Every structure is written in C-alpha cells, then in structure tokens.
Amino acid sequence: xxxxxxxxxxxxxxxxxxxxxxxxxxxxxxxxxxxxxxxxxxxxxxxxxxxxxxxxxxxxxxxxxxxxxxxxxxxxxxxxxxxxxxxxxxxxxxxxxxxxxxxxxxxxxxxxxxxxxxxxxxxxxxxxxxxxxxxxxxxxxxxxxxxxxxxxxxxxxxxxxxxxxxxxxxxxxxxxxxxxxxxxxxxxxxxxx
Amino acid sequence: xxxxxxxxxxxxxxxxxxxxxxxxxxxxxxxxxxxxxxxxxxxxxxxxxxxxxxxxxxxxxxxxxxxxxxxxxxxxxxxxxxxxxxxxxxxxxxxxxxxxxxxxxxxxxxxxxxxxxxxxxxxxxxxxxxxxxxxxxxxxxxxxxxxxxxxxxxxxxxxxxxxxxxxxxxxxxxxxxxxxxxxxxxxxxxxxxxxxxxxxxxxxxxxxxxxxxxxxxxxxxxxxxxxxxxxxxxxxxxxxxxxxxxxxxxxxxxxxxx
Lengths: 193, 258
Ligand SMILES: [Zn+2]
Prior knowledge:
The complex is a heterodimer of chains A (193) and B (258).
Chain A: H1 2-33, E1 53-62, E2 67-76, H2 81-94, E3 110-115, E4 120-125, H3 128-131, H4 137-154, E5 160-165, E6 168-169
Helix pairs in contact in A: 2-4
Chain B: H1 2-32, E1 35-41, H2 58-76, E2 79-83, H3 93-102, E3 107-114, E4 124-129, H4 134-148, H5 151-154, H6 157-169, H7 176-194, E5 198-204, H8 207-210, E6 216-223, H9 227-233, H10 236-256
Parallel strand pairs in B: 1-2, 1-3, 3-6, 4-5
Antiparallel strand pairs in B: 4-6
The structure holds zinc ion (ZN).
The site of zinc ion has 5 residues of chain B, from loops.
C-alpha cells in the first residue's frame, strides 16, 4: 500500500516536471511581452524545478552609431545578487535576440564574479575577451559599458564594475580604454528614442 | 689658516659659477629652443591595433599619418615634433606619456583608426580624457591640492613614491578644459577635410592620455573595420588629408593661446 502511494507520488511529480518543462520551453517569447499574465505552474514547493523569473534589461551594441540599445529578457530570479549578475553576463555573451551586436566575443567565459560590500562588482572573464576582441576605441567602449550598464541598471547593490581578465587587472582590452579602475555606469551611451 | 679659507672661497666660487652657468643655460635653452609637440602613432610591434577585412593594420596607418603630420608641423610652425615611435615597435602606455612629459611637450596627439565588431560603423571622432569614477577622482584631486605643495615636508619617505604615482596618474586632469578645446578644433577640420561622418568629440578613460601633463587628445580617423573606410585609409592621398586636418586644427588651437 505504502509502495503504491510512493509510486503514484513520483509519477505525479514526474508529470509535473514534464509539464513545467513544456511550459517553460513554449512560453518564453510570450512571457517577455506580458509578464503579469503568466499563470504560475501548479507545482508544489517540493519540486525544485519551479523557479520564478524576473525581467532584466540588457544593453547591446547598435553598430551603425555605436549606441547601446536596451533589450529585455527574463532570467531566473535568485535571492543572491551574484547569481543574478552571473545570469546577466551569460545572457550578454549568448547575444541579442533582435539583431543587435554583443560586444562580448561568443567564446568569452565568465570565470568568477563577486561583489564587495561597497558595491563594486569584480567580473573576471576568460582571456577570450581580450584575444577575440577586435580592438578599436568604439569596440572597447561598447564592451565595457555593455557590461557595466547591464549590471548596474538591473542590480541595485552594484554601484561600480571592475573588469578582470583571468583573475588579474589588465591595462586595456586592445590598447585604448583603461581598465585599471572600477567603472560607474554611463547611461548617456544608451540610444535615445 | 688663510690658505684653507682661500681654498674654501675658491671652491664655493666654483660651485657658484657652475650654478650660474647651469641656470643661464637653462634660461637660454628655455627661450631659444623650440617647444615640443608629441605625436603618438597608436599601437606598434606586437600590438597590431584593429584589423581591416583586407588585412590593413591600424599600427601601420597610424605611423604613416604621424610621419606626414610631423613633416607638416615642422615645415610650417615653430615647433619641434617628437614621435613616441618612428618604427614598428612596442611602446608601453607609460612610456608614451613619459615621452611627452620628459620633453616638456605643449601638445600631445595620439593617432588611431577606429574599430568595431562588424562592418557598419563609420566616421571620425576625437577623444579627450574622462575622469571616470568622479568621487574617486575628486578625492584624489583634493588629496593632491592638500599635499603637493607641502609634499616634501609632510609625507614620509616610504609614502612618497605612492603619492608621486597618484600625481603622475592624474596629470591630465589639470588640462581637461584645454584638451576639449583642442579636440573641438581638430574634429572640425576632420569633418571639413575628410568628409567622413562626424561622430563628434567624446570623453573616455584612455590609458595613454591619463599621465600626460599637457593638453592631450586621441584622434580616431575612420573605421578600419569598415571595408569602405579601410580602402580610404590605405591611400596616401587620404592619409595626407588626415595629417592636414589635424595640422589645421592644432594650428587654430595654438592661435587661441598666443
Ligand atoms: Zn587604436
């Protein structure tokens, strides 16, 4: 009797997992447009796959005028700012869904991210960010501020961003913009509609 | 006894004479020697800079333009021009600004060609230094004002190097206003001479500008990542126009202050 109950329970959980999976896969684009109308998946708290999402605004490059253009995206919400910051960076590397340019080479990997209590986020990238970078002032400015603005705009605890390469401070990405200091966001680079 | 006094007198006389000679030499050189403009051809050596689709390297274009600009200035204006490099070699950012400061440069012009991720970006722009983190910079500046005059007295020896580093790193902050005027004059001429899209004057935290103790700008002439502009950049005639534009801009700037 107990065994049948247990089996039934697992089958139920399994079904819910599958349903939730299908729901997440199909509703991606709709949820971006109307986040208020998402029905909550009927999964009990015991099922760990149920995760609430939050909307973030990423900044990608528009080549024609080197301006940063906002693009909205849902990420898995997390009580940890570090985790959400990691997701924001992952989305920047994954690239734009609307034909904008990601100023982070696709090969780039996030090595580590931590936030000091003064609100400085240290974002440590793999060397690909340098090696695969095209160099040029415009390219470097868009890389730096795509990262800095996307983090500071969405995550209140982050006031400044320090970019590291493989754990170390780097002079520049390609010979132009100095990386020897934490950056404040610069929203003047964002397109004005 | 008088022999010794005589020797001391003679000795101090010699020292005095040497001092007077040194001072007058400095005075003479100050008035007679030409003032220096430092031109910085971007990148070089292992540092290729941005690359074009047809294989053009930024480091080669910047050097070619710098030679043309040097010739124009020395032919027509009473200035001596020092290049931070005159061949295809690596020069560190610190050394580039040090060359300007060690030569008592009155102007520093860094020459680059721009690069972006794709092909479409185009146009020319002129940068001067931005003081990023304003709070930090103002704190440093306040610290500078408080300490620089009484530096020798107040700072212990072991801290002196650190303070000097801060002063060095912040050298450009005293020249932001003039640098912006220089940028404006040069950008105007780029628009006239090149007909490239006007991307205006901008501020950014350029490593090479930070330590320069005179008005300093960085010119981004067209995009080497844009195949059409790359084709222009490799032409001798276009490079000549770039040099002419920068020359006209700096000439107008120097007239503002004479
Ligand atoms: Zn460059």
